[in-house]
Amino acid sequence: MKRAFALALPMVLVGGVVALPLPSLKGCSMAAWANQTRLFGHSGEAGRDGRPGQDGRSGVAANTIADGNPASFVLSGESGGPGEDGEAGYRPRCADQPRDVAHHLQAAHGGNGGNGGQGGQGGNGGDLTVYYRDLAQLQRLSVTAVGGQGGRGGRGGQGTLGCRCPVRQWEQQTCTGTPGQSNYRCQTQRYRCSDGRTGAQGNFGADGRTGEDGQLWLVNQLDPLQPDNPAQSARLSALANQSFPLSRNLWETRSGANGLLAPGSRVRDSYQVYTGRVAGTVQLVWQAARPISGFDRESLTAEIQADGTLAATFSEDLWADYSTQRQGDVMTLTIHRAVRRQDATRLAWGGTQGQGPNLRVIVLDLGNESAFVDTQFRVTLRTTTDDLRESRNPRYTTAYEAILPTEQVALNNNRFELALGQLPIDARALRPGTYAQLEITALRSLGSHSAEQTLTWQGQI
Fold this sequence. Notes:
Layout: E1 12-14, E2 17-19, E3 24-25, E4 28-29, H1 30-34, E5 37-40, E6 62-66, E7 71-74, E8 104-107, E9 128-132, E10 141-144, E11 169-176, E12 185-194, E13 216-219, E14 231-235, H2 236-239, E15 244-255, E16 270-286, E17 299-304, E18 310-314, E19 318-327, E20 330-340, E21 347-353, E22 360-365, E23 374-384, E24 397-403, E25 409-412, E26 415-418, E27 435-446, E28 449-460
């Protein structure tokens, strides 16, 4: 015989009508859910942001010869355009407020104003290159090369008003139990309606940057300057079999440009004076121990720098030590040492040997580059007197933390031996059977390149 089960729920009298109370919903009563605030109407959308102002064009560059005849140059940059104002927020769609509901209400919010557009950047003033024989003749040149003003940023759009609640508060009565019985209880819940929030005003756009004044470039000759070719890049293997030309015009920075020109001129205070030219062919000399064919994929950029010296920049995966020399029109770039970056940090733990004052730590160089790179070892040794078989949290103290002296590091082919037993520490820290933590950081370098690699070990000495 099947049994019928009934779920007994207390009754609630609402407006003279007996109704069941709200059931539970996943551990949260429906009454609590009903007390949540619900939005009515549709909130307004944000206004569109203003477009940025157009950047001003820079002034044109010009060349001239100061021959004593008066001349005027207007090379100023254009002002940047103003940014557009942000659009006002869109109004919300208000709706009739629901009546006699058993939850709080929130009227729809107003839309936020759009952000103002950024002002356009002012254009830079144009540069003027002057060829001359007599510096005093620059006083006959009137030059205006002012940078353009930055554009004004747009204003932020206004936010719109939110919807309003015609009825701010109301009450609803909820009863439990059976009418006329001792378990019958009623309580009155007060609910409220909140007006919609006024949308926020949009941010004002930033003003554009004012352009820089144009610069004066002075050349104490009448012949035009030859074009620059200061840098060239190629693979190492290609550079080893051929030379290539490089050239650069050299300049010196001075101040007081406006005092050299006609009164009322306006250029940048600092100016450039031509001091000469470096030109020649560059050849690569490979003196590294490993053949250049092993670095076929690596590249080199040779460049004449602003001070006239020759410098080299190698691809990221190549470490190189080099020198430069100039004899007449020939510039020589000599490579003394070269390794791949990834091979410089291929060290591995090789174990320990000996005990007490004869304790040594072995570090293996799997990249076999130790003959070509400089290596130092920073050692941190921590020991404990606790027995790890009995203590889960042993207390370690630092016995040594410093760069190992070079006399305590021996290199045999690709094998480093670190004489830890010779460290200036209490001999009890190196007693056989002592539990220790060891951290060895290799500091490897070649020329201006460097990298670190850390090895760790824990056990009994």
